Amino acid sequence: MNESRVVGQVRIVGAGLLGASIGLRLRAAGVDVIVDDSSPSNLNLAIDYGAGRAARDTDDPALIVVAVPPDVTAAVVATELTAYPDALVTDVASVKVAPLAELRAAGADTLRYIGSHPLAGRERGGAISARADLFIGRPWVVTPHDDIPTAQISIIEDLVLDLGAVPVIMSAEQHDSSVALVSHVPQVVSTLLAKQLLRSTEAAISLAGQGLRDTTRIASSDPELWVQILGANSADVVPILRDFRDDLDGLLTALAAPAVPGARRAVAEVLADGNAGVARIPGKHGQDRRFSQIVVMVDDRAGELARLLTEIGGIGVNMEDLRLEHSPGAQVGLAEISVLPEVEDRLIADLEAGGWKIAGAWR
Amino acid sequence: MNESRVVGQVRIVGAGLLGASIGLRLRAAGVDVIVDDSSPSNLNLAIDYGAGRAARDTDDPALIVVAVPPDVTAAVVATELTAYPDALVTDVASVKVAPLAELRAAGADTLRYIGSHPLAGRERGGAISARADLFIGRPWVVTPHDDIPTAQISIIEDLVLDLGAVPVIMSAEQHDSSVALVSHVPQVVSTLLAKQLLRSTEAAISLAGQGLRDTTRIASSDPELWVQILGANSADVVPILRDFRDDLDGLLTALAAPAVPGARRAVAEVLADGNAGVARIPGKHGQDRRFSQIVVMVDDRAGELARLLTEIGGIGVNMEDLRLEHSPGAQVGLAEISVLPEVEDRLIADLEAGGWKIAGAWR
Known about the structure:
The structure is a homodimer.
Chain A: E1 10-13, H1 17-28, E2 33-36, H2 40-48, E3 63-66, H3 70-83, E4 88-91, H4 97-105, E5 115-118, E6 139-143, H5 150-162, E7 166-169, H6 172-196, H7 202-205, H8 210-216, H9 223-232, H10 234-256, H11 263-278, E8 292-299, H12 304-315, E9 321-326, E10 332-339, H13 341-353, E11 358-362
Parallel strand pairs in A: 1-2, 1-3, 3-4, 6-7
Antiparallel strand pairs in A: 5-6, 8-10, 8-11, 9-10
Helix pairs in contact in A: 3-4, 6-10, 10-11
């Protein structure tokens, strides 16, 4: 039984985490999925995992998904356009302007190519980490160009919908400048911050709290992949980093002479701008002022957190978000629970009546 | 019944979140706690909340805790040293060198003053957010100076232990350089990153993922408090920020001409240094390579997460950490669970058998 929107064979080139995850999901929907990879062992692994079948001479794919590293994306797309002159080709690389420009420079048939980019996964793990549900609920940017017919764009949107993701249409230029701001620059900043820890003493780093953990988490990303992403999107990343650097220089001037008239005001304005910037991020997370945060102490024992959440469910309160914090060496964790402000007082009272210790609460 | 280590009356000056939380905990242990605040309404609120009693002419405190903003800490400590010539005085400000230097310059009796700093709370909310358990399991730095007798230091350590925190002894200079690195510089970097979002389009910011949320979370901190902290610790913050700026300039040079020989290698080395820096942070969090991460889809319904955790408890697996991720507009959340690698396969198999969808897994 075929439950997919996409019609015909789908050929996936590159059997890593993204490629294999796409294959798993499409096959589950009844699609005839072909997988290919320049590495025979990667390919066999992906086939063993059920991501698709090996290519045959008689293949006639309607749609080809190129899921290879950014550096080689354009070359592989060009090869596929030539090898399958009736197929529509997309790719899933984290940058979109550079591959299109390379394809144009190479004289490829770009009217059969529409780039795309799922904001999903962590680019870790290869086929062994692939999951059919990797893309569910994630934005997936589709970047039409020139006068690509609507019918062609719809085929890519159908693929995105088949994979459970949310299609977002923008130009390649818009995509690259957007991810430069929300993904690539944060990666650079987190990396540079984590780099400063190399000069730290053990004593200093033992004082690390949740703020340092959060700001440096993505600094553990794969350098090989990020060299390619940053190199390919440098035109969009560099201006934002220069603005950041100029703001940093301004702050450094103020902090180097904090007693000079105006210095404090300059620092305060940057801090207020940071407040305003973070308030623009949509979603449910901690900084969202619409919710009250309640911090509950949870013993570091199996089952304690489940017991807490069951109790909250029993009280009839819907939890909007949950964060766990640990202190090194402590036998307790802290669960920060976000709820609607109107239920805060009742939840605290009921939890305390149930023997839970509340370590803090605020709006 | 008195269960405290500290002996005699404790006077707390400043009835905000920290001062009131200290009072609540000490009173619960049977200590005679006096609270004072320059604002009568703050003071009455703290007394109503049970943080202590109002001052009397006959008070004879053995220990005074000054819990006021950094800018006025030294002045308030000096006043207290004069008003109570037999008391030992500590403070809880986030900087330690500046208050001590100010006290010395003012000719205060610094042999009765030992600065300290609990790495706890979020400096939000005032007495209304105070909790007796705010400090449990948190590091609390104690900064002896000159030839302060061991017996005096022990009194502050007893206070820290009474509050459930973990005393960490270091000099004021060590403290300030440590928190500059693990707290103040991350605050500045997160703020400057969030500031760049002010120039973003709605379309760009709609692509924000967990990486941006994590790196900018602390950018929502209180500007008024942070102006004081950064101003007081600028001598330690500025050199680290300059190193950061120099690293950023190096990266900008490489990214501005990514095709130049050596540019890619320079970028890769910074990324690898970031990996090495973040690996130095102790604790249980996401980047900890000792654990496997399993991502489970959880319907956005009350009780679903509790059901998942109960099931994991039933399987007999101990969860090392838990993170929730949300995608804007999606009806599902993702729970990222950290477990020991040896139980990963069994947990995945058992959860899938129980009908849970696994969205990813990696080490």
